[in-house]
Design a protein that fits this description.
Length: 312
């Protein structure tokens, strides 16, 4: 089969589209002919050497994708050849064929395209657990969303509105602020402004109920923007490492710091299917709107910011 591989760390120029052994199928796996493959920042970090990689070169990136089952392992009985499926956490996805454990495979409804599935599952399931598990959004909650124009931020904003709460966005530019408003943010502030003071003015000094903190370096400001008995959900550090938080600070301010990781949520096949099913139903009913993914052939190794790559 053909696959997108690399032997040394660096920018996209280290990627090479070449022949690679087709994966051998274990008894509990299915072989998927890939139709679309998601590209995420984690893939870029791995390619640059920021994340640890196991094994030896050549390496394959990719953890998210969709396609058609073409072969079943001996013990797989609840899936079938020809079935449309997707996954969010199967390694070595940047290839024409992927061997996926059957418990990580998510059946794909006919109304959800391969490209949509490959570009929404990781971000969508992240937004889902953040609003269900890390902090359960309630009607009329005031919710501050960092990086509201980003992939997870756009989905978070829409899910917050679906649950009857009020999303407030933070972005880095007026152009991104416009995107955040299009996705449902009632107010948007810029990082370059005194957004904590602006939030206190907006909320009559009360603060917001919950902050979804994905920047990291802004963690203390997120606490300042949060009401007494409020919650800060930490799930990323795109802007740098957060400061250490003394538990006495949480006690003194009666505030909660919590976190989460998608892999601690997707612990069973039933969980994957249930959560993905709700995500797909929102898309099918047009309650969740997605920007069209940018597409590229798998053999084109130059793009570094697209949401998905075609596996065809």
């Amino acid at each position: 089969m053909r696959a997108l591989t690399f032997r040394s760390f660096g920018d996209s120029s280290v990627l090479t589209y070449q022949e690679h052994p087709t994966p051998e199928l274990q008894s509990n796996e299915v072989l998927i002919q890939m139709k679309a493959i998601g590209l995420n920042f984690a893939d870029i970090y791995r390619r640059k050497g920021n994340y640890h990689l196991e094994g030896t070169p050549p390496y394959l990136l990719g953890y998210e994708g969709s396609g058609i089952i073409v072969r079943l392992g001996d013990t797989v009985t609840d899936l079938h050849v020809g079935q449309r499926v997707a996954f969010a956490d199967v390694a070595n996805a940047n290839a024409e064929f992927v061997a996926a454990p059957s418990d990580k495979v998510i059946p794909l409804p006919d109304s959800i395209s391969y490209e949509t599935a490959a570009s929404v599952l990781l971000q969508g399931l992240t937004a889902h657990y953040l609003t269900r598990d890390s902090y359960e959004i309630r009607p009329r909650d005031l919710v501050l969303v960092h990086a509201a124009a980003g992939g997870v931020g756009q989905l978070l904003t829409q899910i917050v509105r679906l649950r009857g709460a009020i999303p407030i966005g933070l972005t880095s530019s007026p152009e991104k602020a416009a995107i955040a408003k299009q996705n449902g943010c009632e107010h948007v502030f810029l990082y370059s402004d005194d957004w904590v003071d602006q939030l206190h003015t907006l909320t009559n000094q009360r603060g917001v109920d919950v902050v979804y903190e994905s920047v990291g370096s802004t963690l203390l400001k997120s606490f300042q923007a949060t009401k007494v008995h409020g919650t800060v959900v930490f799930y990323g550090m795109a802007g740098g490492d957060p400061v250490a938080i003394d538990p006495r600070f949480l006690m003194d301010t009666s505030k909660t710091l919590t976190g989460g990781d998608l892999w601690n949520v997707l612990t069973t096949r039933e969980e994957r299917i249930r959560r993905a099913g709700e995500l797909f139903s929102w898309i099918q009913s047009d309650q969740l709107r997605l920007a069209p993914p940018t597409l590229s052939k798998l053999g084109d190794s130059s793009p570094t910011s697209k949401r998905s790559e075609s596996g065809r």
